[in-house]
Amino acid sequence: MLLEIRHLTQYHYAVPVRASVMELWAQPQKSPQQRLISFELEVEPTAQLFSYVDAFGNAVYHFDVPQPHDRLAIESRAAVETEPHAPLPERLDMGEWDRMRSEFVKGECFDFLHPHGFAVQTPALAEFVAKRGLDGLRTQDPLTAVLALNQALYEAFDYEAGVTGADSPIDHALEGGRGVCQDFAHIMIAICRSWGIPARYVSGYLFTDRSEGGDRSDPDATHAWVEVYLPSLRWVGLDPTNNVVAGERHVVVAVGRDYGDVPPSRGVFKGDAENELMVAVSVRRARAAAAEPEFMRLARPAFANAAVRRRALAALHQQQLEQQQQQQQ
What we know:
C8orf32 fold; Immunoglobulin-like; globular; five-stranded mixed sheet
């Protein structure tokens, strides 16, 4: 599946701030199931972009705007080709529990076995697990158990944007019985880790066919789900928001212990000003297959030069038409 992704983030300040420093987790990953064809990142005011790879293997971009500004706009565009994932077996043998307790798994997945940040044990979570008898799922093999947990969380919560925030603890969703993908992912991660199953938070996008429906998550927003480590299968993606196994409609951007490790953007500014955040996301099927090799463009002059880029593209298109006409003659 060939997908085009556009993600626009804008910060508006009531009065100009003196400077801003930002970090971005925006570039889709490369993997056997996910080919990154192109990625572009633009910032206004124009800034020099730097990058590094974090402790979890994610590409992170960072920049600073040292001059006064009352608006900061960040736009990322990506083309990604995803492949169908191999089907899961019906079940695993019960020995998988012992394999997860091996020293190798404990060392390899140390960061994803312990409570952290938003994915922690709380009295409200303990009450939720006990009330629904979720610990009883551990009498089954680990794969069957996590698939059943995925469904149980889907059935237990309503999806409703706006009732929780990016910094909301899981208790808000547990007490209200509703929330968004981030909340459901944190709850599932906390439960899986309490069972001794390594689990990590996945930040990315989900392609939703609006004509077919079926997904509860907002098609115009980022998405989050869970990956659990099963030694016989390695990392397996589960989406408790929609009660599905992660597949070719899921685009992975970054993985971490929880949302706090991999927010789409994070930063600070110097100044005393009220600020307003606007985010727009679009995930669409590409119109045609991409034939270009993989490439990456960064730090081009952003939105102010949109008209210049349109004229350049129009000129290039006209040149291609003229070449085609000459070849036909």
